[in-house]
Each structure stands twice: as C-alpha cells, then as structure tokens.
C-alpha cells in the first residue's frame, strides 16, 4: 500500500502578504526538493495582523494569495495545503472574514475549501485573551475528505483539535490523514499541543499533520512545534521553534495494520451515545 513523503512548513509571518508568500515559496520548493508529494502550511500562512479582515480577499481573485500558491503548486508539481487563509465571502458581514483551509492539487487547482468552524475566543486571566469571533465568521459544515496521492486528507484548523467529535466524524467519512494547521498560543501550546495532537492520532488511528506558526507578531508569540504523528501516536517530526521544513513518511499499510490489530472502529458502541443532533449547542 502507498507510502509517501509529506512535508510541514513552519513559518513566521508578518502583515506583509508578499513577503510571507516569498517565505512560503522557499519552503514549498524545499519540500519538493526533499521528495514530498504534499506540503502543509500553517494557519495564517497568508498574514497575521491586528486588523486582519482588512487584508482578507475573495478566493477567486487573481491577485489573491491562494492564486499565487496555485501557480506555485502547478510549477513545482506538488500538492499544497494552505492551512488557513483569511478570506472574504459574498453574503458575509464584510467587516469580518473566514479562516479557510484550502487544498491545491499538483496542477494548481483548488480541490477543497474548509472554513474554520470553532473560533478561538477565550479569556484566561494572566495568560491569554483572544476573541477570534470579533473578526471572523465561523464555518458551518465539515468538509468531506479530499482524495490525494498521500491518502484521504481531512481538513481542520487549529482550535478544532480540541473537539474530538469532529475528527471522529471525519474518520467515519474515511479520513486517513487529519490536518491541524495552527497558530497556537505559547501557554496553551506548552500545556496541550503534543497531548491533543497525539490523542487525535491514537483515537482515530489516523496520521496527524500539523503545520504551525512560530515567532512573534506584535504582542503575540506562536508556539511552533509543527508535528507529524503516526496512527500509533509516535511523533515522526517536531520542528521545534525554527522556520523551516520537516518531512516524514506516511505509510497507509502501517496504518491498516494498526487498525486491524486493534479495531476500535468495530468496537465502538454507538448505541451508548445520544444522537449528536439532540445535544445542546450554544
Ligand atoms: O489571528 C490570526 O490571524 C491567526 N489565527 C490565530 O491565531 C488563531 C485564532 S486567534 N489561533 C488559535 O485558534 C489558537 C488556538 C489555541 O492556541 C488553543 O486552542 O490553545
């Protein structure tokens, strides 16, 4: 069964979209040089800004960051996951944007778009206060898995990692690789990042690929530690704090063996749980 190299690009970005793209381009080219068939960029790979909705763009626009990456994917012949770009959407409150995970194939076509569903609005006194809901519109649907040469890829973003219902649903829809492109905060990253990502890998028996932002922007610092985790929970790559490319091998045969040896999908007692549609949602 298929075995392929994937790359995670750890980035440090500013509010200059062209400069950020130049960094992303170097990392994508380095991914290709190292044999990756698909490379993953973090959430906010387009930019980080205090007033980000002003810089967001419509995805179809020829001048948009996504169109630059489509051209790059085509010329480098590599699949690219743009883990989270800020985009405007017709019909939305135009003072806000969506955070969208865009997958581009190796001929430069967009094959899937997922809008971040769980927005990070938290207040932990002395640690972190962020209100993503002030500037973003949440997505309202799970995007089906995307068939790629590395396997069936599930699109998620950052804070989604704290909601295992979502990865569980994507596993039921055939996911083999869960992706959590992120811009994690330092305090929550220290406490939770590795544990959350390894848990999602172990309980779904999927590979987990999480490209992350590192570095500082204004008062914000990002945790870094882009990871690739295998379906047994082993960390195959950890990028630490630096900007750069890390690679790992995705082996669907190994994943199949793990699923056969411990068939947790067959052992799941669905009858124990209430229908999710009847649960309270805020
Ligand atoms: O604002 C931007 O442009 C980039 N996006 C982010 O930084 C996002 C939204 S504020 N960060 C997270 O979701 C962190 C989640 C997190 O750290 C946790 O779950 O602990």
UniProtKB/TrEMBL annotation:
Domain of life: Eukaryota
InterPro entries reported in the protein's UniProt record: C-N_Hydrolase, C-N_Hydrolase_sf, Nit1/2_C-N_Hydrolase, UPF0012_CS
Key word Calcium present: no
GO molecular function: hydrolase activity, acting on carbon-nitrogen (but not peptide) bonds, in linear amides
Keywords per UniProt: Hydrolase
CN hydrolase domain segment(s): 4-252
Coiled coil, from the record: none
Cross-referenced PANTHER family: DEAMINATED GLUTATHIONE AMIDASE (PTHR23088:SF27), NITRILASE-RELATED (PTHR23088)
Protein family per UniProt: Belongs to the carbon-nitrogen hydrolase superfamily. NIT1/NIT2 family.
Protein name: Nitrilase homolog 1-like
């Amino acid at each position: 069964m298929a075995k392929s190299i994937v790359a995670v690009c750890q980035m440090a970005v500013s509010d200059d979209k062209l400069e950020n793209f130049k960094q992303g381009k170097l990392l994508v080219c380095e991914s290709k040089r190292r044999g990756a068939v698909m490379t993953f960029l973090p959430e906010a790979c387009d930019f980080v800004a205090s007033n980000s909705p002003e810089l967001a763009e419509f995805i179809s626009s020829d001048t948009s960051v996504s169109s630059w990456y489509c051209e790059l994917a085509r010329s480098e012949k590599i699949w690219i996951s743009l883990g989270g770009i800020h985009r405007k959407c017709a019909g939305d409150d135009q003072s806000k944007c969506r955070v969208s995970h865009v997958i581009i194939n190796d001929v430069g076509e967009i094959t899937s778009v997922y809008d971040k569903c769980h927005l990070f609005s938290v207040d932990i006194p002395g640690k972190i206060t962020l209100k993503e809901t002030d500037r973003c519109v949440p997505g309202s649907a799970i995007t089906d898995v995307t068939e790629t040469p590395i396997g069936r890829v599930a699109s998620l973003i950052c804070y989604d990692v704290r909601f295992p219902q979502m990865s569980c649903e994507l596993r039921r829809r055939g996911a083999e690789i869960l992706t959590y492109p992120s811009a994690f905060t330092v305090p929550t990253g220290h406490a939770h990042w590795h544990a959350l990502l390894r848990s999602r890998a172990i309980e779904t028996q999927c590979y987990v690929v999480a490209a992350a932002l590192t570095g500082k922007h204004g008062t914000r610092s990002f945790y870094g530690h882009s990871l690739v985790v295998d379906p047994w929970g082993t960390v195959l790559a950890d990028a630490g704090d630096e900007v750069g490319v890390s690679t790992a091998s995705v082996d669907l045969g190994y994943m199949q063996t793990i699923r056969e040896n411990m068939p947790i999908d067959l052992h799941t007692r669905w009858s124990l749980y209430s229908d999710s549609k009847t649960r309270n949602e805020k």
